[in-house]
Amino acid sequence: MTAIGTLIVIAVASTSALVTLTLVDGGPSASSVAAPASASVAKPSKPQPSESPVASTRPASSTRTTMATATVKPNPPPAARVPTEAPTDVQITHWGVPSTPPQDTVTLAQGDSTCASSLVGVRQDAVRCFTTSPSGGVWVLDPCFDLSTGQGLMCPSAPWSSQWIMISAQGTTGDTAPPSTQGRPWGVEVASGVRCREQDGAGPPEISGLPKSYSCTDGSGLYGDPSRGSTWHIEWSPQASNGSLRSVALIGAWY
Fold first, then answer.
1. What number of CA atoms fall less than 13 Å from residue 134's CA on the CB side?
2. What are phi and psi of 238, to 5 degrees?
């Protein structure tokens, strides 16, 4: 009777060989089969995420840039600068030594040997004289001042003018009182540049209760007396004889 051995094949996983054990008649018989060098036992790998992007069901968000805007208020314009009034330049003219020759030379009117006090201005050394004009008429010249030579008088046409008329006479008026700046000046200059000479004699009707005190070169007039301060002021009318009044600054005053 032929004994039938039991063949038990045990496969042992190895990276280098496959071992087979054969049990024949109760004794193990070992044989080995070399595994191919390239053979390897592959381990189950973990599933890797797909490299392909998974489409999202959420809509792509759009980038929105919000620019903050601020309301910039423009700088307020600079405040209007109030023009500063210049102080009034008060001058005392020292007559008697003229820098130019006279326009005319006249004599005192017949019967008048002296001159009276001036009605223009307040200078004590000024006089008012009646003279015989070159044409034979009578000129009233006011104010007039003694010439330093003692040979007559000089009568300026205006306090700011170099033009004058000479009264040929012997001697002087004898009044040597120093001039002052008290009272109404002989001439003034308005801030606009217009010059005005004190009214001589009777004037036009009053305006707002003020008499006309100065006649100006542009036909306007000044009324009342100047109010004094650093800058003097006086009432002005654009017309010589009527109209409304407004205060104007004086930049010059002559005595």
1. 5
2. -65, -20
Q: Is 174 left (phi over 0), alpha (psi -120 to 50) or beta?
A: left
Pair 102, 133 in one domain: yes
Per the CB < 8 A criterion, the answer to whether 7 and 27 are in contact is no
Instruction: Note whether 253 and 179 are within 8 A (CB).
Output: no
* C-alpha–C-alpha distance, residues 182 and 196, integer Å: 18
Q: Which structural domain range is residue 243 located in?
A: 187-254
Q: What's the pLDDT tens digit per position in 130-173?
A: 888 878 888 889 999 988 888 889 999 898 988 999 998 766 66
Question: Is the domain of 109 the same as that of 152?
Answer: yes
| Claim to verify: residue 103 and residue 130 sit in the same structural domain | yes
Tell whether 206 is covered by a domain.
Answer: yes
pLDDT greater than 60 at residue 85 = yes
Domain total in the chain: 3
Pairing of strands 164-168, 104-108: parallel
Distances (CA, A) of 25 to 5, 7, 14, 21, 33: 5, 9, 27, 13, 22
- Domain endpoint, select from 114, 140, 168: 168
Q: Estimate to the nearest angstrom the gap between the alpha carbon of 43 and the chain centroid.
A: 93
Residues 159 and 197 in one domain: no
